[in-house]
Amino acid sequence: MIEQLNAQQRSAVTLSPQHALVLAGAGSGKTRVLTTRMAWLIQTGQASPFSLLAVTFTNKAAREMLARLSAQLPINTRGMWIGTFHGLCNRLLRAHYRDANLPQSFQILDTGDQLSLMKRVLKGGGVDDEKFPPKEVLRFVNGAKERGERPDAVEAWDAHERHLVELYRLYQAQCERDGVVDFAELLLRAFELLQRNGPVREHYQRRFRHILVDEFQDTNALQYRWLKLLAAGGASIFAVGDDDQSIYAFRGADVGNMAEFQREYARDTVIRLEQNYRSQGHILDSANALIAHNSARLGKNLWTDQGEGEPVRVSEQPSDLLEAQWVVDEIRALGDGGGAYREIAVLYRSNAQSRVLEHALFSARIPYKVYGGLRFFERQEVKHALAYLRLIENPDDDTSWLRVVNFPTRGIGARTLEQLSDLAGQRGCSLSRAVPYVAGKGGGSLARFAALIAEMRGEAQILPLPELVDHVLVHSGLLAYYRNERDGSDRVENLRELVNAAQVFVADENFEGLPAGRVLASDSPVAAGEPPPGVAAVPEGAANDLGWRGLSPLAAFLSYAALEAGENQARLGQDAVQMMTVHAAKGLEFDSVFITGVEDGLFPHENSLLEPAGLEEERRLMYVAITRARRRLYLTLAQSRMLHGQTRYAIRSRFLDEIPPEHLKWLTPREGRVLSDVDVTLGARPRRDAYGRPPTGAIAPMVPRTSANGVLVGDQRFRIGQGVRHRKFGEGTIIALSGNGSDAQARIQFRSAGAKTLALGVAKLEIIAG
DNA sequence: GTGTCGTCCTTTTTT
DNA sequence: AGGACGACAC
Quick check: helix, strand or coil at residue A82? Predict the structure, then answer.
């Protein structure tokens, strides 16, 4: 088990129980170390499987950990506390729902549910959604929760913030009434449960002796506090992460947690995994050189014994269309050379870039697969079906109620719902409980809907889950609705897939044959597990499905659907080029990788240039992108691209200049960032025109003249790369130009004032160089 | 209740 | 440019 590890890996795996920080570079065997550490602790008798807690960020990572662990040890991993932060907190809250002051069958809101609930709250409170856009209020609420702050604890400095706090309060009250929790609430509630409830806290502190954390650099403030609290009883924290791969600051992740953890816990126990088993020399050295430009790193230098390999290829094309065409031609060549398409990844900084690339691949009939986008449980039709199922479980879930009360249509209009909503408001009850008080015709339709849900609830006591799902699809009218809908066949297919998913779930979780809505007696095998809090002994070895303890198959399935939104890719197996954002590529690897749009303003993204921390995160993002490649890496850029319906001109990314030239092989002219028209027509690969067609006799300039000759405003001619002086902002360099004539704009990187976009017709600029 | 038109936005995203 | 969503009209 540990013989095959290198020295650093082995020292991490076999460390005596104590706090430790493992700095695991890209491709250094991070997951392997984590799972082998668990297996080693168990096998050497230092820990029982039930005294371990391993936490990850994604379900995929958790599944992989489980799979590898059970491959290494002949133990039943079922019931072990291995999961995502959210999944484990869900477990905790399910097991102690009373102490956490939650209804037993609380539902979990996904982002979409959360938004519609917020909209409802804002509407109900008569809030001006110009001043308080629902999305922004949600950002505020989620931000506060991720810092562990309830409305009372939030510091509000001005009237606007005080108002936001008030909306936070209102939103939270609505969640409580509905018996629902959002994702951030899962964590905060679980944290508060442990913090406030001594017996529960002590129970888990005693139970978990070893806490293992994956991707530690992605933890936010609350997650870190949660870990510290759980470990406060003497458990050891084994934290694995890579500060150079921290790319989620924008959603609350705090790399600072790593340095803080080192200071507070692992001052003397930092282990670096620096041997990279993935990429060849030039690729790895490029990544190292790039990331060295970041400050405040914990520090580490990856090396490989796999040899130099090939240099990183760079291609600069006049337009995004030609960039895409170039990528396609190269992919075709790789394919002809015997490479599998699935071993080729095309990466981009932003999703908007994918269209041009997709189009080019599609025209060339190269199979490709785009990652990202809607996932299974987020599809409209699936969410509708789930809403019915949630109402069976929890009639007070107003979000679900509103979602399907009139879908498929059953003559319940806005008028009736307004009436219902008013009544519910007056009585302080949920919509469904207000139904009996609605008079007139609307009352009748509402009563019929209520009866439909009641009937489904009855079936849930008899039918096993898959049959119940099927029953709901039929009796809600959803199936019929989508059958009649033209273009509805995909949706019908997805609904059938939902029945199938229920089937699989029930089998996997040993719920087979049980009525969907019934909670098992606590002594049955499936329900066995946690002792009541405060009881010293932790049962070991027994079946231990405490994840779903006390839950009906239906409630468990709904939790699962909320926490695991499903794959966000379609059919696997087909040999296709893999397309995704750089973020989505984290954790993956490919033989050949194309990083596209390597331009200033796009990568690094212009929004990140304002603060240094933003630029450093972009650099880490590029580091992640580069380290995805095993054998061959391409960096491609375009001098012009369509963005927001306007052609934009850009220069090559500063990151390109941070990679030593000896690792790069320019396939297009290195100097002269803007190709002249002559270069364009006689360029390295003049195989296509700007629209992807093979060139015909007369070749039109592919790039508007402005690219080569700059933008003319009055008597001044501006070019990319030019040095300019502004009265207020000082000296800077033009990094991008757009538009023409009177509405021409320039993006200028000022030396001290940061990057600004200025209208050339308005701003008085002095040309100082270039 | 459904369809059409206009308006808005557009970095990255998991749970 | 292009997609999504909301308001308005039939």
Answer: strand
A490 is catalytic: no
pLDDT at A299 over 90: no
Output the pLDDT for position A686.
36
Q: Is the peptide bond before A133 cis (omega within 30 degrees of 0)?
A: no
Residue A530 C-alpha from the chain's centroid: 32
Q: How confident is the model at residue A710 (pLDDT cuts 50, 70, 90)?
A: low
Residue A698 pLDDT more than 50? no
When mean pLDDT is compared across A59-63, A117-121, A759-763, the lowest value belongs to A759-763
Distance in Å, residue A351 CA to nucleotide C3 C1': 13
Cα torsion A664, A665, A667, A669 to 10°: value is 70
- Two tokens, residue A142: 């989620």
Catalytic one among A14, A31, A58, A569? A31
Question: For the whole prediction, is pTM greater than 0.90?
Answer: no
The mean pLDDT of A610-628, rounded to a whole number, is: 93
Catalytic residue among A215, A397, A398, A616: A215
How confident is the model over A458-496, as pLDDT tens digits? 999 999 999 999 999 999 999 998 888 877 888 899 999
Query: Strand B contacts (CB < 7 A) among A residues 51-110?
Result: 57-60, 84, 86-87, 110
A470: CB partners within 8 A, 6+ apart: A499
Contact A348, A625 (CB under 8 A): no
Closest residue to B12 by CA to C1' distance?
Answer: A583
Separation of alpha carbons A423 and A120, rounded Å:
15
Known catalytic residue: A217?
no
Judged against a pLDDT cut of 80, whether residue A605 lies above it is answered with yes
Please give, one letter per residue, the 3-state secondary structure of A679-739.
Answer: HHHCCCCCCCCCCCCCCCCCCCCCCCHHHHHCEEECCEEECCCCEEEECCCEEEEEEEEEC
User: Has A242 been annotated as catalytic?
Assistant: no
User: Residue A485 CA to nucleotide B3 C1', Å?
Assistant: 15
**Tens of pLDDT along A511-555?**
888 899 887 654 443 333 444 443 333 333 333 344 566 788 999
- Give the integer Cα–Cα distance in Å for A386 and A287: 45
Closest CA to A733 of A746, A743, A723, A744: A723
- Rounded Cα–Cα distance for residues A767 and A717 (Å): 9
From the CA of A255 to the C1' of B11: give the distance in Å: 19
Q: In angstroms, how far is B8 C1' from A686 CA?
A: 39
Distance of CA A340 to the CA centre of its chain: 27
The gap between A129 CA and B8 C1' (Å) is 14
Distance (Å, rounded) from C-alpha A128 to C-alpha A617? 35
**Per-residue pLDDT at A742:** 62
Angstrom distance (rounded) from CA A520 to CA A539 = 19
Establish whether A31 is a catalytic residue.
yes
pLDDT, residue A149, reads: 95
Annotated active-site residue A178? The verdict is no
Chain B nucleotides close to protein (CB under 7 A) are 1-2, 10-15
Rounded Cα distance between A659 and A298, Å, is 21
Give the Cα separation of A91 and A310 in Å (integer): 48
Could you confirm whether A195 is annotated as catalytic?
no
Query: Which nucleotide's C1' atom has the smallest distance to the CA of A134?
Result: C5
A139 Cβ within 7 A of any nucleic strand B atom: no
**Where is average pLDDT lowest: A155-159, A727-731, A733-737, A738-742?**
A738-742
Q: Is the pLDDT of residue A755 over 80?
A: no
| A14 contacts A2 by C-beta, under 8 angstroms | yes
